[in-house]
Design brief:
Number of strands: 9
Bound molecules: cytidine-5'-diphosphate
Order of helices and strands: EHHEHEHHEEEHHHEHEHHEH
Strand order of the largest sheet: 3-7-2-8-9
Structural class: alpha/beta
Largest sheet: 5 strands, parallel
Number of helices: 12
Distance between the termini: 22 Å
CATH architecture: 3-Layer(aba) Sandwich
């Protein structure tokens, strides 16, 4: 799949409305560490679809703000900053102004930063068209918190993917340890629960399960089983 450059919002505005209506989208939303990123990427690979990691956009804004001395609480400045960012996704790699920022963007600190910057409606509006540009032939798998409720409201296939917080904390803990980080399970669980609370309670695009989304609890499922269930749901809805 060729990289999709994300350059401010001007490019995004050029997306034709007609294309947005016809190109299939699988919208996968859910809480932190539910496995939706892994599942979404595998589904995209199997179908040959594009993949949008919308959380990465909020993480990049948090990083760029930190570097530029902008507070995560300053919504208007964050929205202005977002228009200036030169972002490229290439496979698993993320480039900001040509620099490979994949590792730092995926850090726990930027996960927290993302959930803080993501509360601002001004920033969310700025990123809306940027995300919609990813809807290209032959289709898109988009993962986040508001893919089915806001960004791709008209998606035919919506999934709310979750797992209980203890299972999610253990998964995240193993991921961190696996990457050589120091982590304490109780702290990871507390962070996840704090992030869940912030994502669900914010006024702008809170994490909710859409009425037309398939509810998929992966607490007892393997990745392969979760992928298969999403694919079955896609076949059923298309
Ligand atoms: O990978 P993980 O689920 O931990 O996080 P992520 O998907 O990278 O998202 C990081 C944060 O960005 C979330 O906690 C949300 O607050 C925010 N986010 C959002 O508000 N809307 C999205 N579509 C995606 C992420």
């Amino acid at each position: 799949m060729s990289p999709i450059p994300v350059i401010g919002t001007a490019t995004a505005m050029k997306t034709k409305r007609r294309e947005r209506i016809t190109i299939p989208v699988i919208a996968i939303d859910g809480p932190s560490a539910s496995g939706k990123g892994t599942v979404a990427q595998r589904v995209a690979r199997q179908l040959g679809f594009h993949y949008l990691d919308s959380g990465a956009l909020y993480r990049i804004v948090a990083l760029a703000a930190e570097r530029g001395g902008i507070e995560w609480s300053d919504g208007d400045s964050l929205a202005a900053l977002a228009t200036t960012l030169q972002i490229v996704f290439e496979g698993d790699e993320i480039f900001l102004h040509g620099e490979n920022v994949s590792t730092v963007v995926r850090s726990e600190a930027m996960g927290k930063g993302a959930s803080e910057v993501a509360v601002h409606q001004a920033l969310r509006s700025q990123l809306l068209n940027v995300q919609q540009v990813f809807r290209r032939e032959p289709g898109l798998v988009a993962d986040g918190r508001d893919m089915g409720s806001v960004v791709f409201k008209d998606a035919e296939t919506k999934v709310f993917l979750t797992a209980n917080s203890h299972v999610r904390a253990e998964r995240r803990y193993k991921q961190l340890i696996g990457k050589g980080n120091h982590a304490i399970l109780a702290h990871v669980l507390a962070d996840i629960e704090a992030r869940d609370a912030r994502d669900k309670s914010r006024a702008s695009a809170p994490l909710i399960q859409c009425d037309d989304a398939l509810f998929l609890d992966t607490s007892q499922l393997t990745i392969d089983e979760a992928v298969e269930k999403v694919l079955q749901h896609y076949r059923h809805t298309n």
